[in-house]
Amino acid sequence: MHRVKRKITQKLNFQARLEQIISGLLAIIMLLIVVHAPLSVFVGSKIAPLALGIKAWKEIAMAIVALLIVLRYGRRLVRDFRRDPLVILCGLYALLHVVLALPAANGAVAAIAGLMIDLRYIAYFVLVYVFTRYQSQFRSRLWRLAAIGAVIVLGFLLLQFVLPVDFLKHLGYSETTIAPYMLVDMNPAFVRYNSTLRGPNPLGAYAIIVVSIATAWWIVNLRKKRGKRQTVLAAFCLVAGLIAAWVSYSRSALAAAIGSAGLALAAGFGGKMPRRAWWILAGILAASAAGLYLVRDTEFFHTVVIHDNLTTGAATTSNDNHARSLADGAALMLQQPFGAGVGTTGSPAAYGSAPNIVENQYLMVAHEVGWLGLGLFMAICGLVLAALRRQRADWRALGLWASGIGLALVGVLLPVWADDTVSLVWWGLAATICSEIYNGGKNGKSNEKTA
Q1: How far apart are alpha carbons 395 and 423 in whole angstroms?
Q2: What is the pLDDT along the chain (451 residues), one digit of tens a residue?
Q3: Alpha-carbon gap, residue 115 to 108, rounded angstroms
Q4: pTM of the predicted model, to two decimals?
Q5: Which distant-in-sequence residues (6+ apart) come within 8 Å of 307 by Cβ?
Q6: Taking a C-beta distance cutoff of 8 angstroms, is the pair 256, 208 a contact?
Q7: d(CA 447, CA 440)
């Protein structure tokens, strides 16, 4: 009898240790991903042989987590998730990528890099989704870490206003790694900041998430008594997030941040929003339109808004590049219904012999894994957004849903999910909400037993 009890105790202790390691690795990914860019650049600049390998630390951590989850929960995974639509669709999407990566159409290194970029946020979503179905307490921990990450990103951004504009060069930033800063249309009067992300466009996309969630928090908690710390954090994230969206000078990100906040406001209040508030919003929109009209002939308007300043701008504007990329990407999608293969576009393509950039998230997916891959991707996004919308009474779900719509729109002009920080933060947090309501393909309470 004592031997049996000892074995049971040892088994339970072993399972508890596995759960601690899993939660620790998932938490490390969420916390460190916001400083992944400066860390990888610094280490790579000091130890050149590690420059490529250090970028894969999060993918290695996810592979370990996947093995530990299988070891911890075993056959229960099949029983609990065999009919789960999200897990099935994500599995099919990953399988299609692996199959189409095998021919290595643009070289083996490009194919591996393509798999990592295309699937890392899907993998993180599934891992968090599965783990939080069994360990519900991990949801709040992940959100706390995301809040810490937001303070780091936004806090460093504010510091950049007083630091030398090229301060990041001391960490190894350069034209061959990540530019320490960028300019709008070559104009030194308009500096585009990175904060701790890989560039101003990812910073703008990250700001969409922060602004939307902070807005949702204010809407849901408007009449509730909350602690001073929470109130200050929400106010800081809202104000600093809007500043981040602005100084990124990403027009799509700024519009999406404002639009997503408005969407959260409309969805949060619904028909209960006072008529006076609607008139105020209409007045703000009208004033913004009038302001743009009044400054239509200024350097600011031509440089920041429409990017056609003939004095400081480049011969080819970003508008021209976007239009050309969209046209080329659409033509290739129609010509290649089965795709050109994983690693044939974006940054992974630079490792091969045929570099190719498609400035559209959906055309990029179609270019690599064809029409079927695009269909699976859209189905996954649709299910996740639908799950978030159903839970919009929860400020977390409301903020993620609104920001998800905004990021989906930004994806028309940029491969928004290719950035690791933006994609892992949003999909990781979304997994915590989805795991609460999906249970074997049915809506309801999740199975959180840990036997």
Answers
A1: 20
A2: 667 677 777 777 888 999 999 999 999 999 999 999 999 888 887 777 776 778 889 999 999 999 999 999 998 999 999 999 999 999 999 999 999 999 988 889 899 999 999 999 999 999 999 999 999 999 999 999 999 999 999 999 999 999 998 899 888 898 888 888 888 777 777 889 999 999 999 999 999 999 999 999 988 887 676 667 888 889 999 999 999 999 998 888 989 999 999 888 888 776 566 666 566 567 766 776 676 566 566 665 556 665 655 555 555 556 666 667 677 777 778 888 999 899 998 888 888 777 788 889 999 999 999 999 999 999 999 999 999 999 988 999 999 999 999 999 999 988 999 999 999 999 999 999 999 886 543 443 434 333 3
A3: 11
A4: 0.89
A5: 184, 185, 313, 317, 318, 319
A6: yes
A7: 9
Element (H, E) at 33: none
Number of residues assigned to the chain: 451
In the chain, the amino acid numbered 364 is M
Structure token pair of residue 95: 């399988």
* Amino acid identity at 419: D
